[in-house]
Amino acid sequence: MTDAPRRLRVLAAMSGGVDSAVAAARAAEAGHDVTGVHLALSENPKSFRTGARGCCTIEDSHDARRAADVIGIPFYVWDLAERFREDVVDDFVAEYEAGRTPNPCLRCNEKIKFAALLDKALALGFDAVCTGHYATVVTREDGTRELHRASDMAKDQSYVLGVLDERQLAHAMFPLGDTLTTKAEIREEAARRGLFVAKKPDSHDICFIADGDTQGFLAKRLGRAEGDIVDETGNVLGTHEGAYGYTIGQRKGLRIGTPAPDGKPRYVLDISPVDNTVTVGPAEALDVTALTAIRPRWCGTPPAGPGTYTAQLRAHGDETEVTAEPTEDGLAVTFAEPVRGVAPGQAIVLYDGTRVVGSATIASTTRATAGV
């Protein structure tokens, strides 16, 4: 006879979307004592959604409340807008101003959902925080936790959770991560449960930029800062209105009137906030063979030395084989094959099979070709 699963006090983070609603319903159905909470993160909570973009609006809080009522669980709204602005939005703007490309979803998971929210939950006597992320927490025989990819790789979100440490994983619950269900089936389950959000569109892009215009968002906060667009030899090809509006590997929107000598497209190779220049060049100049990363976050015990892993460099990117070694300042990574579109500020997440080893922020890259 096996012991019945322990009944936990669970705080379910409910964004107002279908995934978090179904996750909360599953946690309640499993017998846990669940309380729903919507995080008010917007500085203008009375704003409304723009199409299928954005979140954290007054509509989303109402949708979360209705879902909690259907599930039959208590529901609260917690105002974390100031903390979100400081830790996520201001950080996002500062990173772009410095010529780096941040991932605000990782920052939010680290600083808001599994720091500010989790700390408050534990202080109130909750055992775990439940979210609608697609990932899996595995408990080993010695009681330690590991973060693994979701059973369905097509929906896996472990990349944006790679910042969670073992303490945070010990109090994390992802009810959607270990089931092989399509998004259509999740919506069907929501409909069967009577959840109004069953047909609600998913939010896209960056939640606090509801219209999807990142460059416009940054321009309002950083102002126009005209500078030069140059080639690898320093020849001026055009001008820009703010280097923060460009990312490494970008091809479109460069506004260069002069064609390349070989007639091939040019891409952003480097962004220099010091002299406010954007350097462009051929695609092959984007090939990166190695990188250094800082601020590592380990999902368990840190590696003791060099090892071979697979790495993911963006939320929906492919895996690539690497050799990685912890250093005094962070992490040194060498790629088995050159990769493109790697930008300082992005996160690199290491995997051992399906297990997430940890995450770090890319500080610098080594190019296959000299010059940039």
Furnish the topology, listing elements before pairings.
Layout: E1 9-13, H1 18-29, E2 33-40, H2 58-71, E3 75-79, H3 81-97, H4 104-123, E4 128-130, E5 135-139, E6 145-149, H5 166-169, E7 172-173, H6 183-192, H7 214-222, E8 227-230, E9 236-240, E10 267-272, E11 277-281, E12 288-298, E13 307-312, E14 319-326, E15 330-339, E16 347-352, E17 355-367
Parallel strand pairs: 1-2, 1-4, 2-3, 4-7, 8-11
Antiparallel strand pairs: 5-6, 8-9, 10-11, 12-15, 12-17, 13-14, 13-16, 14-15, 16-17
Describe the structure.
The protein is of the alpha/beta class and 372 residues long. It is 23% helix and 29% strand. It is built from 7 helices and 17 strands. It has helices at 18-29, 58-71, 81-97, 104-123, 166-169, 183-192, 214-222, and strands at residues 9-13, 33-40, 75-79, 128-130, 135-139, 145-149, 172-173, 227-230, 236-240, 267-272, 277-281, 288-298, 307-312, 319-326, 330-339, 347-352, 355-367. The protein has a 6-stranded antiparallel barrel. The protein has a 5-stranded parallel beta sheet with strand order 3-2-1-4-7, sandwiched between helices. Helix 1 packs parallel to helix 2, helix 1 packs across helix 6 and helix 3 packs antiparallel against helix 4. The model is unreliable at 48-54 (pLDDT under 50).
Number of beta-strand segments: 17
Oligomer status: single chain
As laid out across the biggest beta sheet, the strand order is: 12-15-14-13-16-17
The chain-level mean pLDDT equals 89
Gross morphology: globular
Radius of gyration: 22 Å
Quick summary of this structure?
Helices cover 23% and strands 29% of the residues. The chain is an alpha/beta fold and 372 residues long.
